[in-house]
Design goal:
With about 280 residues, the protein is of the alpha/beta class. The chain is built from nine helices and nine strands. Helix 1 (about 15-30) links the parallel strand 1 (about 10) and strand 2 (about 30-35).
Amino acid sequence: MSNINSKVWFITGASRGFGLEVARAALARGDRVVATARRPASIEQALGAHDNLLRVALDVTDEAQALAAVEAGIARFGRIDVLLNNAGYGLLGAVEESSAKEVADQFATNVFGVLHVTRAVLPHMRGAGRGHIINISSIGGYSAYPGWGVYGATKFALEGLTEALAEELSPLGIRATVVEPGFFRTDFLDSSSLVKTVRELPDYVATVGHMRSLMAGANHRQPGDPEKFAKALLVLADSAEPPVRLPLGTDTVAKIAEKHRTVEREVANWHALAVSTDHDDLKP
């Protein structure tokens, strides 16, 4: 029997990458896990059979499936303490190169999928008066990169959604955190997790083309350790006062500092114009 004080996790995209590592680490310490994926058989192959594990089929773009998956988790374990919105994929290409369908598909999974699952879980957390929603963003959701504009836009959306959730849910005893990983040695740059735009324009060779070449040589050579990421997520889930934002990785911390310097410099350079637009009746 599981320890009644152990946490119950609901993890999307649990068949590989961050989702799989967190599921494995949570099970290893005695937590219970509702692990979801489009093909749940892949979860069984990765984690094996486990009394504390429930594998559920879930395509996060299907709201009805999200509701059914959450109900299955509640039926098995009685509650959900931590929702880890991890399912997602990358789109590599210039903004102009991205077709309407490629953009729509990206948002359907990375943003609307998160909303589907979050709305399905929240009634149960509100009923319990506690819970923690953890949304996996990216350093690309805090500071943009050429070639990752559309993908970054989905993660920028998660940043704003999580900030609002944190304020809305705090009085209800529920926490919300957006996690901003840098580059980790997962399969994110494999074809299983990364889509490249069909269109490639020569005008972007110096920017997006360079990024494509850089990413082609970076797979499984990234600085971040996925197992350490999973351990960090357990610490986050155990925190009584978790942050709204949690950057993970030295590359992320450095990029955030770089962006802050850039923003502060631009605000200083354009300060006079920035503060010139108020109504005159507001001036002292």
